[in-house]
Design a protein that fits this description.
18% of the residues lie in helices and 37% in strands. The protein has 131 residues and is α+β, with helices and mostly antiparallel strands.
Length: 131
């Protein structure tokens, strides 16, 4: 799929709980799994974006199963772009099914970039997300 075919969404940068930073600590099962899936060396953690409305993960999103100390979880992952930076949108299947810690208005972004730093983002800033 080309960048021109990606669906564009507007969203607000929001703070997370730090859960993904802890989950993606160096040497963790999650970090290893996400890096294997994406083919890039990722920065631990995620950028949380609250979209203008609820959004389903696209039908072409891959599903991966993560098993660690918190149990087994199915994760949707798909290439994405935040403003001009290539990254990946991820969402736990529980959230996709409406039962997770985030609503379907929130998308988590993982990347090999320090997105907040590189785009000089703060909570409340509006970004464009495409996936």
């Amino acid at each position: 799929m080309s960048n021109n075919e990606l669906q564009a969404y507007s969203g607000e940068v929001i703070s997370g709980t730090g859960h993904m930073s802890n989950r993606m600590a160096s040497g963790s099962v999650a970090l290893d799994l996400y890096e294997k899936e994406t083919g890039v060396e990722l920065i631990p953690g995620s950028l949380n974006i609250k979209l203008d409305h609820e959004v389903d993960m696209p039908p072409y999103a891959r599903q991966i199963v993560r098993s660690d100390h918190e149990g087994e979880a199915t994760i949707y992952i798909t290439p994405a772009i935040v403003n001009a930076l290539d990254c990946f949108a991820v969402r736990n299947k529980l959230a996709e099914d409406g039962a997770g810690r985030h609503s379907k208005r929130v998308i988590e972004i993982i990347s090999c970039h320090k997105i907040r730093d590189e785009l000089r983002l703060q909570d409340g800033d509006i970004v464009e997300v495409r996936f």
